[in-house]
Every structure is written in structure tokens, then in C-alpha cells.
Amino acid sequence: MFSSLPFTLSFFSIMVFGTIFSISSSHWFGIWVGLEINLIGFLPLLVYQKSMSESESAVKYFITQAMGSSFLMFGSLMSYGLLFTWEVAASSWILGLILILAGLMTKTGIFPFHFWLPSVMAGLPRMSCLMLATWQKIAPLFLMTTFLDSNLTYWLFMLFCIFSAGSSIIGGIGGMNQTQLRALIAYSSIGHLGWMLFAVLHSSWAMKTYLGIYITISVCIFLSLWYANVGLMGAMKTPVTNILGLGSTLIMFLSLGGLPPMLGFISKWVVIVTSTKSMSWIFLLLLICGSLMSLFYYLSLFFSLFLVVFKNKKLLFKNYTKKSLIVSLSLLLNVFGGLFLLTESFLYSV
């Protein structure tokens, strides 16, 4: 098991320390150092089973992150050569900012630097997929909020909008014909990254809210997959007999797609409300179209697994254990969390 390995805690601590160090730094050199520490701690966790697919994914991930680090360092060096300072707030040269933005987007997997994420996630086990989909996004997204402190030019604002809309569309189109859950989760992650990047332009609070809800739903989904014993390679062919785990997984996927009034709808609603003050209606419409395509393949997965369950004659409710309690609480959080937040916001506005 992943948690029983002797080096897991040490490398996991290094990964967490690198993220915290990167977010806490006030200059680009410290940010680069923190991201490299995070990479050093995360890579050994990718290859703990020593399989060929994990090794291939780890090499792809390392090469991509090295390319992102080179973009980040090159952009910060260009700003340093112009202003003789590493400070984040002092970075004002447009070309340097674009290179830094390209490095952060490459590390995260945002369009047009999304090419590596589906192939890397397709070869990883469940726990590594969860960390790649959640924790590894925190530092780059928080660092993108520093662009709000600088004076965003019109062209930089348009780049943010184009990249965010492209991520949502690619995430919707790419997941249409996927039969593997890992590849589907990867394209879903690309689509949600577009929403987070669009939220960065308007409010750091909206981005943090969206990221927090996305991480919560992703953790609930992987807990349900673990409880239902559904493989990430091909859920369509897996003989599942656990109704609670499978049903909660399907409902949480719908919540991740943003189906109202579930918890995932709240994050998209927050971004829409905060972005209505700007004039970027076209990009917001593209984001919604990409989200609708993502919801389409979530519903396709829902009906496919629903039919598989009813063809299986050995449908069981497993004994009430701690695992089932955790899954039940996660299910209640996703179903009624959105209703609770909507009610609270309505009462607050009144």
C-alpha cells in the first residue's frame, strides 16, 4: 500500500514544504526554489510500484515540469535584467510576465500547455492521481494571483481570457470519447483549470473558493472509488457489487460537473457572479459551453454505470463500516452542501 512505504512520509513532507515555501516567497527566485523542492518530493511518490506505466508517466512529468521551470526562470531573469530585482511586485515587463505565466501554466496543465496531463495521469495509480489533480495545482494557481497586483495590460487580460476559455473547451471536447476514468478525470481537471484561471482575473477569493470546492469534491470521488473498488483503468468493465460506493461516485461526478443544486454548482456560480461586472461575456459563454460538454460525458458515465449495475445480479449493501460512514458523509456534503450555501447566500442578501 502507498501509506505503508517507509519513505512516503518524508517525501510527502518535502512536497508540502515546497508548496508552502513557494507560496510564501516574495521574489521569483524563491518561488522557483519552492517549486523545485515540491517536484523533488513528488517524483518518488509517482514510481512507488515500479511499474512501466508509472515510470513513463514520471519521466513525462519530470520533463514537462523542467520545461515549466525553465520558462519561469527565464522570464524572471529577463525582469531582473531590466529592473535588477527579483521582487514579484516589481515585474512589469510584458514579455517577462508572459514567460512567467507560460511556466506556471505548463506546470499546472492549462491550455495551450495541457498536452502532458492526460498521458501522465493515465499511467498513475489512484493516490498519485489524486495528488496530481489537487495538491500540485495549489502553488501555481496561488502564484497566478500575483498578476492581480501588477498592472494588467489589455493584452495580458485577453491572454488570460483566451487560455481560460480554451482550457474549458479542450476539457469538454477531450473527455467525450474517453473510456478510462483517469483520462476522463484529467480532461475534467483541464476544464476546471480554465474556470480557476478566469476567476484569477476577477477575484482571488473566487479562485480560492473554486479551488477549495474542487479539491473537496475530488477527494470525495477518490474515496468513493476506493470504497467501491472501482478500477481507474476501465470502470465500464468492472464487476461492481457495492451500491453505496458506486452510487455516491456517480452523484459526486455530477457534482463535479456543476449540476445544480449540488456543491460543484456553487463554485461556478461564484465565478459567474464575480465576472459579470467585467465585459468578458464571450469568454464566460465559452466557459459555460465547455462545462456543459463536461456535464454531458459525466451523464454518459452515469447512465453507462447505471446500466452495468442493474445487469449485475449480485448487488450488495456492504456491512456498515468506517469506510461507508466516510462515503455517506461525503455524499451528503456534495448533495446538500450546495443547497446550504445557496440558502445562506440568499438569507445574507435579504
Automatic annotation (TrEMBL):
Q: Can you name this protein?
A: NADH-ubiquinone oxidoreductase chain 2
- What species is this protein from? Oncomelania hupensis hupensis
Reactions catalysed: a ubiquinone + NADH + 5 H(+)(in) = a ubiquinol + NAD(+) + 4 H(+)(out)
The record's EC number reads 7.1.1.2
**Per its UniProt entry, what is the enzyme's top EC class, as one word?**
translocase
Pfam (any one): Proton_antipo_M
Q: Which GO terms describe its molecular function?
A: NADH dehydrogenase (ubiquinone) activity
Q: What are the transmembrane regions?
A: 7-23, 29-49, 61-86, 92-117, 154-173, 185-205, 211-228, 240-259, 279-310, 331-348
Q: Name one GO cellular component term.
A: mitochondrial inner membrane
Tell me its family: Belongs to the complex I subunit 2 family.
Provide the topology term for how it sits in the membrane.
Multi-pass membrane protein
Q: Answer whether the UniProt record assigns the keyword Nuclease to this protein.
A: no
Protein task: Core subunit of the mitochondrial membrane respiratory chain NADH dehydrogenase (Complex I) which catalyzes electron transfer from NADH through the respiratory chain, using ubiquinone as an electron acceptor. Essential for the catalytic activity and assembly of complex I.
Q: Which GO terms describe its biological process?
A: mitochondrial electron transport, NADH to ubiquinone
Gene name, Swiss-Prot/TrEMBL:
ND2
Instruction: List, for all copies, the residue spans of the domain called NADH:quinone oxidoreductase/Mrp antiporter transmembrane.
Output: 25-294
Q: Sorted alphabetically, which keywords does the UniProt record give?
A: Electron transport, Membrane, Mitochondrion, Mitochondrion inner membrane, NAD, Respiratory chain, Translocase, Transmembrane, Transmembrane helix, Transport, Ubiquinone
